[in-house]
Amino acid sequence: MTAMAVTCFILSVLLIAMACVKTSRVREWRESVNPSAPDIPDAGFFLLRLTLLALAAVGIYLGFSMLSLADDDAWSDAELTSAVKGATEELDGSTELGDITDNDTRPADFEGDIATKIWQEIVEHGGGDAPQSGVGVSLYTSSITDATYDISASGTDKTFCMHVTRTHTDDTKVYGVMFPEYTYAVSTEEGEC
User: Fold this and answer.
1) What is the pLDDT of residues 13-29, one digit of tens each?
2) Which of 6, 23, 42, 125 sits most deeply, having the most CB atoms within 10 A of its CB?
3) Can you name the residues that pair with 153 across neighbouring β-strands?
């Protein structure tokens, strides 16, 4: 995207330079190439200049739009840091009901639902300027009650290590059936796991 934006800017500069060429210069050049050609009226040069400047304006607009799109595709260090911190605060202490057959020997779905929830929270806490894609949440290690995730994002070399621990804290009765309630403790450190 950046290369295309630079190309738009270069073409716009060339169009502006063409619009700045004096009418007398163009007439001299034209006469040297084809002396019998009819003379172009001043109104024709005016319309040509107007057209060249309008095309240059469109090129500049497109160039800035492409730069904006290129920026929207990449995360900055600050955006990722803020998003991971916000996601950690949001997820730390969160609760979830387990399956009625769960007797604390079944591992949590660290690779599926919990990884997806972490990804969603990071994207949500990314802020208005951060892209909605490019975040990587990969399971590093897991056991029955805890997991560690590597978190990265496109556009930055910064990584984070998030540790999630599931604890059976209570049992909740729903429609006469007891469900285990789990609380998640979440902490994050900068760097790879």
Assistant:
1) 999 999 999 988 888 88
2) 125
3) 135
